[in-house]
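One thing: could you explain this record?
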Amino acid sequence: MFKHAVLFSVLQIAARGDQRWLYLETHAATGSYDLTGKQAAKTKEADQGIIPLIEGEPPCPEMADWLAFVRSRTLKSYPGSPAIAQECLGKKDRMIFFERHPAEYEKLKNNLGDDPRTRALKEDGYKGALTLQPRHGERMLVFLDPSYETERDMDALANWLPRAMKRWPQAMFLVWLPLFRDERELEFGQYVSSLDFGFVAGTRWTEFSTKESALEGSAIIGLRTPPPMARPAYAIADALEKLWA
């Protein structure tokens, strides 16, 4: 939820100027989620997260447009990052989404519809992305949202990012970072945020589990992002921190 609200605000700012964008996701997933389904009922994350926000007032002005967009989609089609990009980016922008899992890839293609700005690719996002280059007049914005299921996931991203930043010296990067109770992500987050100028914004929610491995927060690291993109991220983080406290 936090990452989607921040992504929405960043892409809104990106779309305001005359810049043409090449937006890229290495781990796109399905692009849309049923919050009334069995998986959502099992975790109950939506019950304690997005649903109360939909039913109430925005915690801060920076979340108002994103929440309006979520409401327009209903709980059966909660918009993930590909849907947010489609909503925010302009007619001249391009979007490329990588998803290697066959079933999720098929759902992603279906959810993207016939939007001519988009392209879904069923392959490893890290390998596939490095074969791409922005066209003349385009600037890249890369959103990274891997699974973080194992330490290997962090290692893979830590190894890939410097290569990508060297290949695309003008590209901006947004990295989602889960915050765990045992702080396993701390060293990784410090490393990523040191790679270039930008911002780090995050929030932790009320403790739901006493397990040391439990997920208890969410953060976004922006690299090569200008200050106007950082301000709403900080505002959203502060608002949610106060709400969940």
The mean pLDDT is 90.
